[in-house]
Amino acid sequence: MSAPSPGVDGFTWDSAYHAPVLAREVVDLLGGRASVLDGTLGGGGHALALLEAGVERLIGIDRDPDSLDAVRARLSPFAAQGRFHAFLGNFANIEEIPSLSGQRFSGILLDLGISSHQIDDPTRGFTFREDAPLDMRMDRGTATDVPTAAELLNTLDEHSLAAIFREYGDERRAHRLAREVVRRRATRPFAISDDFVGAIRGALGPRTGPGDFARLFQSLRIAVNDEITALEHALPVLRDRLLPGGVMAIIGYHSGEDRLVKHAFREWSSVCICPPKQPICTCRGRALGTLLGRKATTPAPDELTRNPRSRSARLRSFKLSEET
Fold it and tell me: What backbone phi and psi angles, to 5 degrees, belong to 96?
């Protein structure tokens, strides 16, 4: 395969499965490193970009068996060279993957979104298109104990539903929507996308549109897959898998996950994390590394034109100190 330069147009790494977001920026951060962990393989676009940019060895994880099959086929030439290895699992539970026990990396990437293929496949239930089942489980084949979106809508009390819509969907009228869900399910349980769209319109008014549906369907997906809790657990675990001087890059799409990443990276980059009025420092007394850039990186206008689904993406990065 020919190796494009890091600045080449992002089209290079698109596939029918997914268009990787902020791929050029990810290559600028991680390209050419000796070993990179891609904790969210998705369609393999970021992995392909990094391998073509000179990453010597890339380890990929994905919790979706469908994604994993597609990426293994796409990146089979690199696997044959011994440069690419993929594992089924959740990046938040990397310690449960025996083959990766104790491994450390010079770069780690997380793209916290879902792939275009997952959105476009109505059987997965991530879409608000008509007649799609309210499923939304990332690893539906292996996590049989994980409740579907329909089960959450049909069983959670009003307070719990409102918390999901408010915290994960940034919905200020969350209690109104939660009451509408509880009212409707009393006569007919939620089963398909149309049911939830109807509840959104019933609670928030007929002027609601695709932006509102996308935001509130996303809130259900985050709840189904416990994404915020998983990320909070994973951040320090993955940081400790970085080699000295290693870089962690994370692309978030929701204010809650982006805020979590921002606060973690800022804390790791601070010399002192003691409470402001504490007279004597009792914390570690040194920064663990450096925050790369004061603000999040967002997609350039040309990427927004090419891939409108990238509009909410925020890339943040952190470099571990050379001294451990």
Answer: -90, 0
Q: Token pair of 39, please? A: 């904790």
| Cα distances (angstroms) measured from residue 294 to each of 69, 124, 195 | 37, 37, 42
Rounded-to-integer distance, Cα 171 and Cα 165, Å: 6
Nearest CA to 191 among 115, 270, 253, 132?
A: 132
Backbone CA torsion sign across 224, 227, 232, 234: positive
Calculate Rg over the CA atoms of the chain: 21
> Per-residue pLDDT tens for 277-306?
777 777 777 899 999 988 999 999 999 888
C-alpha 83/C-alpha 55 separation (Å) is: 8
Residue-wise pLDDT tens digits, 153-184: 999 999 999 999 999 999 999 999 999 999 99
| Amino acid at residue number 16 | A
| Amino acid occupying residue 44 | G
CB contact at 8 A, 107 and 247: yes
C-alpha separations of 156 from 125, 185, 227 in Å:
19, 11, 18
Q: What does the alpha-carbon distance between residue 22 and residue 312 come to, in Å, rounded to a whole number?
A: 11
The structure tokens 């993957």 sit at 97
- CA-based angle 41:149:62, to the nearest 5? 10
For the chain, helix (H) and strand (E) counts, in that order, are: 13, 7
d(CA 177, CA 261): 29
Distance CA 245, CA 237 (A): 16
Residue 2: predicted pLDDT: 36
Q: Where are the alpha helices (DSSP H) in the chain?
A: 23-30, 45-52, 65-74, 76-80, 116-120, 149-155, 158-167, 174-185, 193-204, 210-224, 227-239, 255-268, 301-306
- 3-state SS of 117-181 is HHHHCHHHCCCCCCCCECCCCCCCCCCCCCCCHHHHHHHCCHHHHHHHHHHCCCCCCHHHHHHHH
Domains, the chain, ordered by start: 10-117+227-320 (3.40.50.150), 147-224 (1.10.150.170)
